[in-house]
Every structure is written in C-alpha cells, then in structure tokens.
Amino acid sequence: MCPALEALMQADGTPYSGKGVMLEPFVHQVGGHSCVLRFGEETICKPLIPREHQFYRNLPPEMRKFTPQYNGVVSVSFEEDEEGNLCLIAYPLHNESVDYENQDPSADCQEPKSRMLKWSNKKQSPLLQENENYSKDRARNSRKEDKIMSYNREEVQQQQAEVLYFSLEKGNVVPQIKHNPWSLKCHQQQLQRMKENAKHRNQYKFILLENLTFCYSVPCVLDLKMGTRQHGDDASEEKKANQIRKCQQSTSASIGVRLCGMQVYQSDSGQLMFMNKYHGRKLTLAGFKEALYQFFHNGRRLRRELLSPVLRRLREMKDALEACESYRFYSSSLLIIYDGDPPRTPSRPRHRGGEEGDEDEPSDEEEEEEEGAFGFPRSSSTSTAGGLSGGSSSRSSHGAGEASSPEVDVRMIDFAHTTCRHYGEDSVVHEGQDSGFIFGLQNLITIISELEDHSTD
Q: If 0-12 CB within 10 Å is exposed, 13-18 middle and 19+ buried, where does residue 269 land?
C-alpha cells in the first residue's frame, strides 16, 4: 500500500486491513451533480475527471489556500450483498505514476477484490432506504415505463422539494446531520450508474480531497456557481446552448453568481434548511440577496460576526484571481462554510440541537432582528465595490501545516472545465483574467457589504 495513503487513513482514523475502505454518502454536499463520498473524517473523494485532476496536481501556489487540499487517487469498486444493498469500496492504486491525463478514463484498474463489506449492517437513513426501494421497484418495469417513471419522479422532486427542512438528531455531543436530500440523490445516481455498467466495468478512479467541513459541529454550507459563463470550450453545441440559457434565466448573467445549493442550521427550531439548484435558478437579484440573508441568519439573529471574515476572504481571493493569467474557471463553484452550532463562551451554558436557550441574545436585539427577519433591502444595484484590498485569511489550508479554529471558510471547488495556456491539448487559449468569475466575486462582495452595513444600522 502507498505509504502516503496509509498515513492519510491513519490520520482519518480509518483502519486498513486489506479489505479497502467503505465509502459513505458525504452528507454536507449541497450542490453539483458529481457524487461526493466520505472517505474518512478529514477526507472526501469524488470521481476523477482528468482535467480537474490536472488542475489540482499543477495548482498555482497563489491558489492553494483557496482550494481543498489534494490527497491523491484511489480505485473504487462496488458490490451488492444478498439483500441488494450496494457498497462502494476504495482501494489504493498499485501504480501511482500513471498518466491520468492521457489515460482512457474508462480503463479498468487491476485491483484485488476483497471480502465484501456489508453496508446493510449500518442503519440507513429513511431517504436512502426509500431511494433503494425505488430502485428495486423500478427494475420490475419495462425500459419504457422506467424512463417515464424516472422523468416524472425527477420533475416532481424539482417542483415540490426545492426547499426542505429536517430536524437534526440530537446526539450525546453534537446534533447529527442524517438527512441531506441532494447528497443522497447524487449518491444513489452514482450507484445506479455503476450498477448499470457493472458488466463492462467495475473499477473507477476517484480523487481524494480535504473535507472542508471537518472542523465544524454543524456545518452551514453555501454553494455558489460563479461566472457569467458555465460551458467549457469543449462543450457540444447542445450543451453550450443549454448552459447559456440557464445563465440568461438566472442571476448568473446579471451579477455573475447564482445559488447552487444551501444547508443552514436554524437554532430556534433545531432544523436544517436545504435549498437546491433548481430553486437557485429561479431567484431574482432580490431573491438572491434574501437567500444570502437567510444563509447568515440562524433563525434567531443575523450572524453578523461572520460577514467581515467572509468579505476579507473574498477580497483576498479576488486579488489572487486577478493575478491568474489565462485561467478560466468555467462552471466552478464557491463554497462558504461556517459552524451553525459554534462553541459558547465559558460563562454561557452550551445547548445543542436548537434546544431552548441555544442563543441567549438580548431581547431588544431579538426584537430588532425579528422585525427585519428576511427583510434584506431589495436593491436593484449590481455595481461593484471599488478600492478593495486583500486582508489576512480567516483560515489557512491544512496543507500549510497551520493549526486553525476557523470562524468561516471560503473555497473554490469543481474544476472539471477549467482551462489555461499550460494545458497543451486545449484548442482555445485565453488571455488575461477570468473576468466573469471576478465580476461575480465583485458583486458578491458588494451584496455582503450591503448586508453588513444594513445589520449595523
């Protein structure tokens, strides 16, 4: 086994006994269509896309603290137990000097199969069990009926489940997040794809990345699709037209950013609120501002102490991107993460899971926030902030070897369509900065600055 991977597993508290590592849904995934899985406490993994893998392996130094740390590649296979439950198992690659950029991504990895680990031994969430039961039921239908059912079910989900609420399960130490509809949807789709391809292929390469939510008790996560253009240079005419339409019909065209997913903890009710990308596409500029307000609001008060660190981080990122010559981050996202259940000061008792007394704010402040709850001023301005200077980061990458206890984190993710002049095989070479991404950053800075100013009125 690779010493680096073995050390990573030990750091994650994940034992390796020759049986591989069983992967589970990463419950804090709120956007994207690629399945993200939990490899260990501090590590996640996702299907390897050669272009994204190339980006992580050749990351510009100035971008490292704005992206998750890259931790290598594993081979992932799946098996099915006698009850029909699917398991995904990660194995180390024997040959780690493989040229992933030039290799056929469908090529098999010759990894030994070990005794299957039964996922059914673990208690599954009702949502996941429902998805698995649905998969078994639909296998009994004809192909035509199957397509109709799948289409109708997805349409119903999009129309009726764009904003959902789930109560956290109260554990002995911290509230437990068990339900994340988007994460489970992506996971089930990945399992179904692998199952359908099982006759031809049962080995997949996944990249290992830093789990950005690791140090938070109850991660609140905002996934923002950045830029005024989402299609890559190699997109088909059909996909290009589809992506252009989505941008024109959303806030992507007007301000260079749209909501792609959100998970926020509301301490007054002890619930998590989820918004998915279908809801995000419908938001007007005023609706987008309202959603940002909701993300930083815990149901009792606006978490105004988070706004300044977020702005500082965004300004620093903007400076770094302005120095990135020739890069285009098409379809990349920006994650904003903070703890929805932060530690209290010693003088104040800590309550978990939205119990009464979770936030003991002065009554006059509560009345002030109640009066303005979700009432962020609906300005039509999309002007950008000028004269912005970068500040010190509120969090440094774990790769820098610095210990941190962050208030908030801001990172770029998803680089499947990233390009620059260093990618020799690309037919299009861009000059200058990624103006679309920077435009979105500038407007995001302006909107959060307005929110900060409004909160201190």
A: middle
Strand runs (DSSP E) across 190-345, as ranges?
A: 204-210, 219-226, 257-266, 271-275, 328-330, 333-339
User: What is the CB neighbour count within 10 angstroms for residue 113?
Assistant: 13
Q: Are 455 and 305 a contacting pair, CB within 8 Å?
A: no
> Phi and psi for 112 in degrees, rounded to 5?
-70, 140
pLDDT tens across 396-424, in order?
443 333 334 458 999 999 999 999 988 87
User: Is there a contact between 430 and 340 (Cβ–Cβ < 8 Å)?
Assistant: no
The span from the CA of 87 to the CA of 79, in Å, is 6
119 falls in which pLDDT band (50, 70, 90)? Answer: very low
- Which DSSP symbol is given to 402? -
The helix (run of H) or strand (run of E) holding residue 313 is helix 307-322
- For the cut 80, the answer to whether the pLDDT of residue 125 exceeds it is no
Neighbours of 135 (CB within 10 A): 15
Contact between residue 276 and residue 291 where contact means Cβ atoms under 8 Å apart = no
For residue 272, which of 299, 290, 292, 241 has the smallest C-alpha distance? 299
Contacts of 233 (CB under 8 A, 6+ apart): 328, 330, 417, 419, 426, 427, 428
Residue 64, C-beta contacts closer than 8 angstroms, at least 6 positions apart: 397, 399, 400
C-alpha to C-alpha distance for 289 and 306, rounded to whole angstroms: 16
Higher pLDDT, 139 or 446: 446
Total-model pTM: 0.74
d(CA 411, CA 447) in angstroms, rounded, equals 18
Alpha carbon of residue 191 to chain centroid: 19
Is the pLDDT higher at 98 or at 264?
Answer: 264
**Contacts for 1 with CB less than 8 Å, ≥ 6 apart:** 16, 92
E strand or H helix at 167? strand 163-167
